[in-house]
Amino acid sequence: MQQQKYENVLVPVDGSKTTDKVLNRAIEVAKDNDAHLDILNILEVNQFNQTYWSAVSGDVVFKLTENTDEQLKKYQKQAEDAGVKSVDIHIRFGNPKPIIARECPKDHNNDVIVIGSTGLSAVERLIIGSVTSYVTRTAKVDVLTVRPLDKTKQSNKFQLKAAGPFPGGLF
Questions:
Q1: Cis amide prior to 165 (ω within 30 degrees)
Q2: pTM as predicted
Q3: Which residue among 49, 75, 110, 137 sits deepest, i.e. has the most Cβ atoms within 10 Å of its Cβ?
Q4: Of the candidates 74, 130, 141, which has an alpha carbon nearest to the alpha carbon of residue 101?
Q5: Which positions ≥6 away from 41 have C-beta within 8 Å?
Q6: Half-sphere exposure for 113 (CA within 13 Å, toward CB)
Q7: Torsions phi, psi of 56, nearest 5?
Q8: Whether the Cβ atoms of residue 24 and residue 79 lie closer than 8 Å to each other
Q9: Residue 23 and residue 44: Cα distance in Å, rounded?
Q10: How do residues 73-82 score in pLDDT, each as one tens digit?
């Protein structure tokens, strides 16, 4: 059976704890397929306006866009340094769900989306829904979901250690 060959990889990044792992996986996919890599960040300006009663000025949005562009350029350099030959960065404004699932893949001919499994808590997923769930259900291209590190494989922080003498004169 022949393995799927991808030509244009899309990786949405949000600056969460899983961003590095997701980006590294997208870099691997792009390198393995000698593919183009699109790194995307979506700014939800409407979220700020609703939260702060429209108190967010154009200057704040400009600065946020500027900071995001700087970070995306670092990700672009990381991908290029790792051996990806063609990398573009994109900043979009709006709702991440349709942008990731449909708009960006259509605009940039992406044939696979590499996305983190979740950036939300269980309560947030219940209230606003998971972007990843939406993307996997509605995207017309393949979706590779990257899971966070398995916490059980990390060192056990709650391991009991022998110590003594105990405070308070127990022994």
A1: yes
A2: 0.78
A3: 110
A4: 141
A5: 12, 13, 14, 15, 68, 71, 72, 89, 90, 91, 92
A6: 31
A7: -85, 120
A8: no
A9: 21
A10: 999 999 999 9
Rounded Cα distance, 109 and 78, in Å: 23
The 10s digit of each residue's pLDDT in 122-143 is 555 554 458 888 999 999 999 9
- Please report, as a single letter, which amino acid is at residue 160: L
pLDDT for 86-125, tens place per residue? 999 999 999 999 999 999 999 999 999 999 986 555 555 5
Per-residue b or e along 27-47, where b marks 16 or more CB atoms closer than 10 Å to that residue's CB: bebbbebebbbbbbbbbebee
DSSP string across the chain: -PPP--SEEEEE--SSTTHHHHHHHHHHHHHHHT-EEEEEEEE-HHHHHHHTTT---HHHHHHHHHHHHHHHHHHHHHHHHTT-S-EEEEEEES-HHHIIIIIHHHHHT--EEEEES-SS-HHHHHHH--HHHHHHHH-SSEEEEEPPP-GGGS--TT------SPTTS--
* Sheet strand arrangement including 112-116: 87-93, 36-43, 8-12, 112-116, 142-146
Tell me the C-alpha distance between 156 and 141, whole Å: 39
